[in-house]
Amino acid sequence: MVVENFGRNLRFEPSNILSPKTSEQIIDYLNEQRPRQVRVIASGHAWSPLIETNSTLIDLEYMSEVNIYEESGESLVRVGAGCQIKRLIGILNKAGLTLPSLGLITEQTIAGAISTGTHGSGKHSLSHYVKEVSLISYHDQSDTASLCRVTEGSDLEAARCSLGCLGIIVEVVLPCVPQYMVSEKWSPCTTLSAALDREKDAPLQQFFLIPHRWTYFCQERTVSKRTKRSLFASIYQIYWFLFFDVGTHVGILFAARWMKSRKMVRFLYRRLIPLFVPRLGAVTDRSYRIMTMEHEMFRHLELELFVTREHLHETVEWITKVLKFADGEEVHFSDAERIILHKIDLEQSLTKIKNSYTHHYPICFRRILADETMISMSSGDHEEWYSISLITYVEPRERFFRIVTFLAKYLVESQEARIHWGKWFPLDSEQTEKCYSRLTEFHDVCQRYDRQGVFRNTFVNKVVFFKSDKQFK
After folding, report:
1. Which in 79, 183, 349, 351 has the greatest CB count within 10 A?
2. Is the model's pLDDT at 40 over the cut of 60?
3. What span, in angstroms and rounded, lies between the C-alpha atoms of 207 and 362?
4. Are 106 and 142 in contact (CB under 8 A)?
5. How open is the CA angle 425-116-387, to the nearest 5 degrees?
6. Cα Rg for the chain, rounded, in angstroms?
7. What is the DSSP pairing of strand 16-18 with strand 56-59?
């Protein structure tokens, strides 16, 4: 059976697909069949080759139980790895609760979300909050698979965002918070500094850089003291769905994919789309209605960069400059920039992208607080990170790949950027090593849980375990 991911950039044929209903079934399979490689598929919403294997693929769809309970005065939820976030949010909502961090996409499963560092805006990533991970592995360097619960220390920091490399996650324990209301309003900004200033009063906001206008629209979001929805909240949700979730994407598809008109794309952003951005006062609604969107309605592909606040301005200046250059505008590259391009062998790539690509989707920015993890994109000593999402709806995608690969490699070198593990991932091992100071520590934890490297595939061996292959064989 051929498996294809959401973005249709991955197609592979595993030798065996297992859909277990219990942990015991997984353990029995691992100990009886001794597969040479095992990977887990969740919702398939990732664009990187994390799920790819020609050996055993495990689908945890049936392991999705949800159990809400109290412990030491704290509300917790024990949730099966295969439970989709939208289902979990619905169950929690009925109990007057929600998750401590809500990402834009709710199609993901819990295991898939934490394993790749999924995040929202204004808080830590979901991985940061994980209190316990139950996984099936060969822990303590055993040759026999068994279930273990990871609850503390460096092992938990590794398990919170592990890319599936410690073992097969079957259950996760997360804290719950009381369901809360969020107020949102839209406001235009002409500069990045102005957009960032809005965070003082709207710490949950996300904002967008509008291509070809090169100005910003902020979704100012803050926790509200109100207990009821705004009078026009339902109308706002309908408008959001019709204009943003559907209308804007249809317009982008028409101009960029079907008509392939660069002039039409520019007109869309310079003249048309800004007219429909709501300029009314704040609308208040439940958190999950404001913080999420129907991101999965149209197939697309995404690269997501992460930089610290101190590098944000220079990063945005570079992205804007490169996208203008790719769109045919005259752009000057400084001597310092050309030195970096020469150092990482990107001079020829710069020539190839000139007048080759017109960007056709708003560039989304979200602030993420630092995680207590080893290799999530917002882990480390910095207080806060900003994610920057670059998305394409055009196929074939070769021109987009060329642009975002160029941007990613330059920004890793110049601004210490990181790339989302679950999105398009163009880095090699040398660049990955620059990003994560605790990568060797992560290797050591993985070795204790999977001495033979059964739970790794070609992709993670290439970009994560490139220095550890010998000790895993």
Report:
1. 79
2. yes
3. 9
4. no
5. 65
6. 22
7. parallel
Considering only CA atoms, which of 138, 133, 87 is closest in space to residue 111?
Answer: 133
Cβ burial 57-80 (10 Å sphere, 16+ → b, else e): bbbbbebbebeeeeeeeebbbbbb
Phi-psi region for residue 12, left (φ > 0), alpha (ψ -120 to 50) or beta?
beta
Contact 38, 58 (CB under 8 A): yes
Per residue, what are the HEC states of the chain?
CCEECCCCCCEECCCEEECCCCHHHHHHHHHHHCCCCEEEECCCCCCCHHHCCCCEEEECCCCCCEEEEEECCEEEEEEECCCEHHHHHHHHHHCCEECCCCCCCCCCEHHHHHHCCCCCCCCCCHHHHCCEEEEEECHHHCCCCEEEEECCHHHHHHHHCCCCCCCEEEEEEEECEECCEEEEEEEEECCHHHHHHHHHCCCCCEEEEECCCCEEEEEEEEEECCCCCCCCHHHHHHHHHHHHHHHHHHHHHHHHHHCCCHHHHHHHHHHHHHHHCCCCCCEEEEHHHHHCCCCCCCCCEEEEEEEEHHHHHHHHHHHHHHHHHHCCCCCCCCHHHHHHHHHCCCHHHHHHHCCCCCCCCCEEEEEEECECCCCCCCECCCCEEEEEEEEECCCCCHHHHHHHHHHHHHHHHHHCCEECCCCCCCCCHHHHHHHCCCHHHHHHHHHHHCCCCCCCCHHHHHHCCCCCHHHHC
Does 33 have pLDDT greater than 90? yes
- For residue 458, what are its two tokens? 């070609």
Please write the tens of the pLDDT for every residue from 69-123.
Answer: 999 999 999 999 999 999 999 999 999 999 999 998 899 999 999 999 999 999 9
* pTM for the predicted model, two decimal places: 0.96
What is the C-alpha separation between 3 and 57, in angstroms, rounded? Answer: 10
Q: How far is CA 355 from CA 74, 274, 324, 326, 400, in A?
A: 56, 25, 9, 5, 13
For the chain, list the domains and their CATH numbers. 3-59 (3.30.43), 66-178 (3.30.465.10), 181-291 (no CATH)
- According to DSSP, the β-strands at 38-41 and 56-59 are parallel
Between CA 319 and CA 214 the distance in angstroms is: 11
Q: What are phi and psi of 61, to 5 degrees?
A: -55, -40
